[in-house]
Amino acid sequence: MARRRILFVDDEPQLLGGLRRMLWDRREVWEMHFAEGGAAALALLEQMPMDLVVSDVRMPGMDGPEFLEAVRRRWPGTVRMILSGHSDRDFVFRAIKPAHQYLSKPCTPQDLKTAIDRVLALGDIFTDQRLRETVSRIDSLPVLPAVFAELTEELRSPNASVKNLGGILAKDIGLATGLLKLVNSSFFGMPQRVSSTEQAVTLLGLDTVRALVLAHSLFSRFDSRRYPGFGLSGLWDHSLGVARLAKTLAALEGGDKTVEDVCFMAGLVHDAGKLILAELFEDEYTRVLALARSRNITTWAAEMEILGVSHAEIGAYLLGLWGFEEAVVLGVARHHQPGRAGGSPPLAVPVVHAANALEHALVVINRQYAEHPLDTETLAALGLGPRLDAWREAGRSLFGQGEGGE
Question: Among candidates 323, 335, 330, which has minimal Cα distance to 148?
Fold first, then answer.
């Protein structure tokens, strides 16, 4: 197997030398290149393609954001990372926009290796050639929403506080308004009205808020008017319902808070790939929607027939680029095909699959729509078959249905 090409960019030779020494043990699996500054890096990229670039932020002549923006335009398939110790928030905010991931200095060698390995491992998870061909047709992969990245960066700070986190959320008026509207809806059933983003972080917890920020950012960039019958509000409601049920099922199976939060996140963004495919392949996705309606098949089946790849894989691939942990990526990737996740998948895989199928069955928008069946064979193989009755009951309770309410 060919070594993956990685380009490290910094204007300080001693820092590049430090990276070379720090990553020496990866020389057998990575083909590493080092460039002093953005201009030299672009010249090198003209000579040979790179799988991934890792750039500093502040560099004379051409800074990190300018360099990565040039990479995004000219080599859109190259993964882009920022590695910087700069603390100016306005500058950081600008740097995040053209990058798929933002890593802070000081960054331990292991953290850097893990971040790079996780992105490169996407090729091992998504081996389908059709997926790679589809991704290669995307002119420019979306980058991680800046507010989400800034929240994550604040969380890493030793001085992180609820006040600071609330302040970051409040900077985006549309996001703050949408978040507070959702928090005050019956979905969360808060005993008191939430009036500030700071209070929302306190009451919901950071991981839940981060999940909502990511989903809101993905949904808000999509213009549903271009796709008659897409049903954006219905998709949002479905995603919220799946997230809530996935978290409930994880708790029923003894998952701790971390596992519950992973399942909530995966449930909330499990259909985000639909938005990406619709936005990037407008004509083909219009045909997908028409085929699903005319033959009464699932959107997933129509995607596979027309595009040869599904929203589950595309959404998961993007989350992987953004550095999400494997449990979230797999939970999204295999929510229609849990059996393809391997013999011992993380709990998010069966839980999000079941939550998606049960939500479709229990919250019936149109009884003529195609069913989303449970993969009972895979669930039984995982030892979860006897749990299905309890899971259905949890779904009925969550969605306000009595016995036999399907």
Answer: 323
